[in-house]
Amino acid sequence: MITHVFAFFLNISPRLKRAVWKQLYQYLANKYPTQEWTYMNYGYEPSNQSIKIPLKEEEENDRYMIQLYHHVATAVDLTNKDVVEVGSGRGGGSSYIKRYLIPKTMTGIDYSKNAIKFSNNHHSVEGLTFMHGDAENIPLASASVDAIVNIESSHCYGSMKKFVEQVYRVLRPDGHFLFADLRPSEEMNELDTIFNAAGFEILKKELISKEVVNAMEAFHEYKLAFFQKMVKGWLRKPLNDFAGVKGSNIHKELSNGEMVYYHYVLRK
Fold first, then answer.
1. What is the pTM assigned to this prediction?
2. pLDDT digits over 114-136, tens only?
3. Which residue range or ranges hold the Methyltransferase type domain (predicted)?
């Protein structure tokens, strides 16, 4: 019931949508500063994956979330590039990209000051920085970066149009926008329209709902136990839904097609 009420309010007012999501992420970063929780996406698990990406042993618990970053961010070669993640959350994805994909610089930007504080405290990697900023007014110079990554964050924004226009402004000519997120199925045509209107060339549009659901189901037991241990009281149920455990509203909607999850590769 709580998640349905939130969904109602988030759909009727872009301003309220921004405010509620900001307060939620501020609260989570401040209330749960555990280093065990540095990724906040639903994950990615191919049905026929034969070769797993190599990870350090201490990163295995985050494998499914890392696989989503790997799938999205390796769509183009980021070696020696200036890369930005907009919506960097608790910083795990930006850290992975910098350590494994070897860009020249990696900057994580997030609307939550608490999330930026958490990221700076927990991710000490040469060439990796985190800064507070608004996705709809990205605090970077025009034509200053080679690639922008945005994973499972844009559904929180008040204006997708403003965000995409900002991404286009900040990218250098021939720069890439590496995007992945979920939407109600009936909103996908609108997303394509926004990308095209901003001037982007769509190089790839890939439906990955099945792979995201696979990850949700594979990670269910660990995630349930993690939140059971960490979260007490009334917040446990809405956080389980927010985290996408098996049987949650978002798991059901991605499974039955009411919600869809797409990966795009776009070029300026």
1. 0.85
2. 889 989 998 999 999 999 999 99
3. 84-179
